[in-house]
Amino acid sequence: MIREPGYPSDPWHITETELDLEVLAQSESVFALSNGHIGLRGNLDEGEPHGLPGSYLNSFYELRPLPHAEAGYGYPEQGQTIVNVTNGKLIRLLVDDEPFDVRYGELRSHQRELDLRAGTLERSVDWVSPAGRAVRVHSTRLVSFTHRAVAAICYEVEPLDGKARLVVQSGLVANEELPVAKSDPRVAAVLREPLQSEQHIANGEGGLLIHHTKASGLRMAAGMTHVVDSPKDVVVNTESFSDWVRTTIACVLRPGQRLRVIKLIAYGWSSQRSLPALRDQVGAALASAKLAGWDGLLQDQREYLDDFWDAGDVRVEGDPEVQQAVRFGMFHVLQAGARNEMRPIAAKGLTGPGYDGHVFWDTEMFALPVLIYTKPQAAVEVLRWRHATLDLARERARTLGLKGAAFPWRTIRGHETSGYWPAGTAAFHISAGIADATIRYVQATGDEEFEREAGVELLVETARLWRSLGHYDRHGAFHIDGVTGPDEYSAIANDNVYTNLMAQRNLLGAADAVARHSDVAAELGVEHSEAESWREAANALVIPYDHELGVHQQSEGFTRFQEWDFAGTNPEEYPLLLTHPYFDLYRRQVLKQADLVLAMHWRGDMFSPDEKARNFQYYEARTTRDSSLSACTQAVLAAETGHLELAYDYLGEAALTDLHDTHSNTRDGVHLASLAGSWIALVAGFGGMRDHDGILSFSPRLPARLTRLDFSLLWRGFRLRVSVGSEDVTYYLRDGDHEPGKRLELFHHGTSVTVEEGSPATLPIPSAPRAESEPVQPVGRAPVRRHSAVTPADVSVQP
Ligand code: BGC
């Protein structure tokens, strides 16, 4: 873990009170702003020093070769890498000819603050130039949720101790030089000069750059304009060259006078539109941003976020750090998806180049569960994007000799780009994850239009995949062999329980969907017999169980493998994938991340409480959590099986992944799945929320430190609020305008309850199941004990 910047606990802000250049790259990810279409890392306005400069556009990528030392049939030959696009956030300042640079002169104070309600990043600096001139700089940056193509910066400078000549140089810069990547294989490949100039334009107040990528054939335009406000005369002029445009604003001010520059930035990109069309699109976006004005952009941003928090806020009493972290996590998940419109959500969102900017199953199984219940309009866009890539997934299935659609393990555009087939190609469960999110979304929203236009086809094509991937044995049991489940320390396994149970949901969900929409089914060529074959296969799927140990096997034969020597493993050997050959990991009982335990969350209806308790204990002892996707799931099952304090520890781990940089790679972008995981740990863990088969149920129970957990959800047009105390819980309902009787049936600890608008229901919380023994983690891999880490002073009531 690298040094952690201190972010004081605050329910709505992430504040950095001092600039620490050692953790600059990490803070750039934490402070990244995005709307799902544009992403700007939290680089300093003046561009230098930087950890990792970054400006991204969703799905704007370059192709690169994917060399294999020993090639094989079906190996993808081209990789896709997110491009660091034209930097529009650059604003340099010169004070009496000296560049404002925090490494020189005297930095009297430096504060940055991410405001989770305003949707802005603010920066306040008091700096004395090497020649002794003191200035105050204040900047506020936003990436607009309401103007999809627009980002804006309000940049203010004032001299503090005497007359000063101020020159602000605001730029657009393409092909910025990037630091060379570290040797960690997970770090993105760095592309040098990926953009080729097509046109540059300067006008008085701003300008425009148009570029295209060399191989992927994508064209992008970035434009800027400025609104200048100064008490004294200013000189403004703009110059442009192939890779940069610079607007210079110069004036002389005295103390008490302030120069204010509003910089409006717009981006557009396309694989098809012409240069004039893109140029005009960016011009139009700038014009409408100018019309809204800075105050209008701020107000729109606030209203958008007010609505989001009203629908989905989570309030935690008793742990201010978790309170801050869960809102921070939700904010980043929202940022990653808000305006993605038919585009994916990558594992790092648009906050950094990690994993080459690729999209994994993290999207459907971690980020979408949050968005489906808090911002369903964003969730459905991801599913529509998957639908738009169906042809590529069908082609991939054909290449693999399969039917239906095999979605890529990692991609930007929709092609498989995983170079390591046992982890990539064989991780077929991603297709079931997409089906699961489709079913979940439709059940939670009742969006029949989406179901008919895209949902049924997604379910049908993925069901076809499973039916062709699996086979019947001579006893009539249906097996899915040779796959990799979520735990990447096992591969090419037979009958992975998670995969089989998710495939089962997929097969049954597809059969149900075609029964509901027979006309759509007919268009897709689904006959009655085909849908029946899905049901039969689903019902004959094998779920391996070890009768001697009384636990499920993660995959067939897993519980007979040799145990990992945890006692003989040094702490520096983790993550094991960087210090041990996969060969060794695959044949032992060692888990990178929750697998069977994840199955017990999303297919919890298929396990009895006793099975859950025993399985949880068994896999706890073998799970390293080398992946950040694990802790939240362990929190959910720890809570369900009565280990509330352990669940609380895991909640802390998931929630603080990026604020504490626990995986030492936040510099490359935030861990979106884990950030989503803080919501999952609270809502599904301590709130006990499940929605198996469209039935909403809660089994809330709090750990000792939390005095109250209050969360809101959207469910079929209702806004539902669940307020959990240590003794009882109250369910509140509103806005169910489309529902007859404005009432909702849900389950509370297994008992049916009808909640009506205007009359909340309060119910007692039964005591937790008695756990026979405490789960034990591998030596040295227990989570940080959060329940003892929180001091009584931290325990306070949050607004
Ligand atoms: C995890 C995968 C995950 C990927 C991207 C890997 O370390 O094992 O489950 O999809 O990271 O976050």
UniProtKB/TrEMBL annotation:
Q: Name one Pfam family in it.
A: Glyco_hydro_65C
Could you tell me the keywords of this UniProt record? Glycosidase, Hydrolase
Give residue ranges for domain Glycoside hydrolase family 65 N-terminal: 15-270
Q: Does the keyword Cell division apply?
A: no
GO MF terms listed in the record are: carbohydrate binding; glycosyltransferase activity; hydrolase activity, hydrolyzing O-glycosyl compounds
Which Gene3D superfamilies does the UniProt record give?
1.50.10.10, Glycoside hydrolase, family 65, N-terminal domain, Maltose phosphorylase, domain 3
Annotated Glycoside hydrolase family 65 central catalytic domain residues? 327-679
GO BP annotation list: carbohydrate metabolic process
InterPro entries linked = 6-hairpin_glycosidase_sf (IPR008928), 6hp_glycosidase-like_sf (IPR012341), Gal_mutarotase_sf_dom (IPR011013), GH65_N (IPR037018), Glyco_hydro_65_C (IPR005194), Glyco_hydro_65_M (IPR005195), Glyco_hydro_65_N (IPR005196), Malt_Pase/Glycosyl_Hdrlase (IPR017045)
Region (Disordered): which ranges?
755-799
Where does the record place the catalytic residues?
488 (proton donor)
Cite the binding residues for substrate. 361-362, 592-593
Signal peptide span: none
The UniProt record lists the Glycoside hydrolase family 65 C-terminal domain at: 689-755
The record, for PANTHER family, names: GLYCOSYL HYDROLASE-RELATED, GLYCOSYL TRANSFERASE
The record's comment on protein family reads: Belongs to the glycosyl hydrolase 65 family.
State the protein's name: Family 65 glycosyl hydrolase
What is the scientific name of the source organism? Phytoactinopolyspora mesophila
